[in-house]
Amino acid sequence: AVASAGGDVEQRLDRGRYGWLQCLEGAVAVDVADEPSAFELRGGDALQLGTVKAVRVRPVTPARWLWFDLD
Hints:
The chain is mainly beta and 71 residues long. 0% of the residues lie in helices and 59% in strands. It is built from no helices and 8 strands. The chain has a 4-stranded antiparallel beta sheet, with no helix packed on it. A 4-stranded antiparallel beta sheet has the order 2-7-4-5, with no helix packed on it. The relative contact order is 0.43.
């Protein structure tokens, strides 16, 4: 995905699926349910998600990232 600051994107995961979020460039804040604060990812950083149903990706700067929905 490509987004400018302020353009939130929600990614959902079905039961039994896993997610991988790879930030390619820029910076994003990732809101994960039941976490007290957002995770900040910058170009080259990644986040593995296995027990959540949805995440919200908020670009902090113009950013590009890949979202993988895995079996």
